[in-house]
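Dear colleague,

Thank you for sharing your sequence with our group. We've completed the structure prediction you requested, and as agreed, I am returning the results in plain text so they can be pasted directly into your records. Please verify that the sequence below matches your submission; if there's any discrepancy, let me know and we will rerun it promptly.
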Amino acid sequence: MSFYFAQAGNNVGIYASTVDEAIRWTDQVWAKISDTDMWLNIMFSSIRILIIFIITRIVIKVVSRVIDRSMARKQEGKIRVNPRRFVTIGELLKNATSITCNFIMILLLLSEINVQVGPLLASAGVLGLAIGFGAQGLVKDVITGFFIILEDQFAVGDVIQTGTFKGTVEVIGLRTTKLVSWQGEVHIIPNGTIASVTNYSMSNSLAVVDIPMKADLTLDESVHLVKQSLAGIEERDLNIVKVPDVLGIQSMSTSDYVIRVVAECMPNSRSSVERQIQGDVKKILEYHERSKLAALEQAAAMDNDEGDGAGGA
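Please find the predicted structure tokens below.
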């Protein structure tokens, strides 16, 4: 009987200690909740975090606008430059500004929540050094991309060819360049693999058209017809800078000869200008052929009429 009373006493003691612990935990929680200083610190930290975020966004917007205005003033200057280069450089500067400001903002936010930033920066430096040794190809891509932009080798919107890839430059990054071919294929090329570039957009193109002529046409007639077909072509096709030149005979055989026409045109418009010249010359030759046939038919009809009249007399 005394054993049961002792066991009951022990259970009561355990329950009492558990209740005391629960009361102490509740008191601690309530003390934390009712701690005015803690809530003031949280409120001020939240306000500082919000202010840091807003200031970062404002700085990015202001710097981006300053970059846009600076690029616009450069384009309106007296020195003739490629405007697409300023677009490329402007986008690169804005991206660098955004990355830098966001990185600084993250460091400030971590310091606001009592995270030690120093060890993180040291670890990031060691990690960056290790990555630099292990990612030599990436470093080569970045350095090559920097010099592509600095030396203005090509810009966004240019038509270039590097290796077997040809297309319009859509994006120039520090690591890769994106080309879109005329068939819509997208080529993403690491900058480190770009050894040589042919840029078709840096200067005017030269359209060269070889026009075959029949041997029954004299050279003067052929040149006259070609020049007649090219009259006013610079108004029909605005890509043509000046009136095309008829150079003369390029090659000849016993049955025909070839007349060469050259025309200076805007960059990347050579193919369309050549088609325009060929179409205009084709139309004038067809018109000349029809006129010649009509004249022959009319002459033959007049001969028939004269022959019939003579026979009737």
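Summary note from our side: The longest helix spans residues 270-312.

Kind regards,
the structure core
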